[in-house]
Amino acid sequence: MAENINSLIVEHLRAIRTQIAQVKDDTGEIKMRISSIDEQCTLAKKGIANLHSDLAVMQIRMDKQGDRIERTEKRLELSVA
């Protein structure tokens, strides 16, 4: 009787070890995926920051062009001021 109980306990322990090993593998895969997603988010944030910078530069250029047009209109007396 005790032999059967010990055998049953050993069998359950082996099953638990197998499941724990599978959980460790799954956890490792999840960590890799999260790391990949984190890298992609970082790249996306850098891209968005670059777009904001480009938009700011374009706005400055447009403001300068507007100023030049206003000066030209004043010199040619085309503005209604």
Folded structure, characterized:
With 81 residues, the chain is mostly helical. The chain is built from one helix and no strands. It has one helix at 2-75. It is rod-shaped and about 110 Å long. The mean pLDDT is 94.
What order do the helices and strands come in, and which of them pair?
Blueprint: H1 2-75
Distance between the termini: 108 Å
Strand content: under 5%
Low-confidence stretches: none
Overall shape: it is: rod-shaped
Radius of gyration: 34 Å
Indicate the mean pLDDT. Answer: 94
Q: Tell how many strands the DSSP assignment holds.
A: 0
Please describe the biggest sheet, giving its number of strands, its sense, and whether it closes into a barrel.
none
Number of helices: 1
The SSE string, one letter per element, is H
Helix content: over 70%
Structural class: mainly alpha
- Oligomeric composition of the shown chains: single chain
Quick take:
With 81 residues, this protein is an all-alpha fold. The protein has one helix and no strands.
Task: Give a quick set of tags describing it.
81 residues; 91% helix; 1 helix; mainly alpha; rod-shaped
